[in-house]
Amino acid sequence: MNKRKLEYFKQKLLREKQEAINTINEDIHSSFQDYYKELSLYDNHPADIGSETFEMEMQMNLEDKEQKHLLKVEKALEKIENGTYGICEKCGKEIEFDRLDIIPDTEFCMKCSKDSISLNEKLKTRPVEEEYLKTPYKIFNGSFRLSGLDGEDTWQEVARYNKTDYKKMALDWYDNNMYDGSISGKVEDVEDISLEYYKKQINDDINKEDK
């Protein structure tokens, strides 16, 4: 890529960088009070501030998007300095000028960009607000070593309200133990061994000695 084109994209990226910084600085200082006119929110039901909660979630997503965009722009500016700008990181070919003109911070050519987004990555996408949540309020990872509240315990707590009169009914999830994968209160795997198993083992040993 010649110097004239590099300078063109450099100025374009610098403008985008400044716009991203301005957007982040404007949004980062806002709070719930900017969307709500009352002095206190403590005595309000969550349903009463549903619109305000939505606005805050939308702002968090926009801020996260701008942060990621800023990192990509800074990376593209570094590439201009070291002479690797406009080269696809996957196939090593030159990225189309039209594509760079629309997305100057892109890392891949059109073909590689389509191939790089797998179905797995799409399915793993989670709302940005979950990053601010701590266990047990965030997504459960299905850990078998966690002795505290997990996804299975949460399901059992709410499933009991769906209890039916017939044990074999498909809707009676709680009685059928559909998600009861472990013994309640178990911490170590050895605690899965039942008392009946121990008794049977002792009886077998006694019978062997008698023989």
What does this structure look like?
α1 (3-27) packs antiparallel against α2. The chain has helices at 3-27, 50-82, 97-102, 110-116, 119-123, 151-159, 195-210. It starts with a helix and ends with a helix. The protein is an all-alpha fold and 211 residues long. It is built from 7 helices and no strands. It has 2 domains: 3-132, Four Helix Bundle (Hemerythrin (Met), subunit A) (Up-down Bundle); 151-210, no CATH class. Keywords: Metal-binding, Zinc, Zinc-finger. A zinc finger (dksA C4-type) spans 88-112. This is Transcriptional regulator, TraR/DksA family. GO terms for molecular function: zinc ion binding. Residues 83-112 form the Zinc finger DksA/TraR C4-type domain.
Major sheet details: none
- CATH architectural name of the largest domain: Up-down Bundle
Q: What share of the residues does DSSP label as strand, in percent?
A: under 5%
Please tell me how large the radius of gyration is: 29 Å
Task: Please count the beta strands (DSSP E, at least 2 residues each).
Answer: 0
Shape category = elongated
Order of helices and strands: HHHHHHH
In total, the number of domains comes to 2
What is the number of helices?
Answer: 7
Average pLDDT metric: 72
Low-confidence stretches: 169-179
Helicity range: 40-55%
Annotated CATH topology of the largest domain: Four Helix Bundle (Hemerythrin (Met), subunit A)
CATH class of the largest domain: Mainly Alpha
Instruction: Tell me the CATH superfamily of the largest domain.
Output: DksA, coiled-coil domain
GO molecular function, one term: zinc ion binding
Organism: Caminicella sporogenes DSM 14501
InterPro entries: DnaK_N (IPR037187), YteA (IPR014240), Znf_DskA_TraR (IPR000962), Znf_DskA_TraR_CS (IPR020458)
Pfam families: zf-dskA_traR (PF01258)
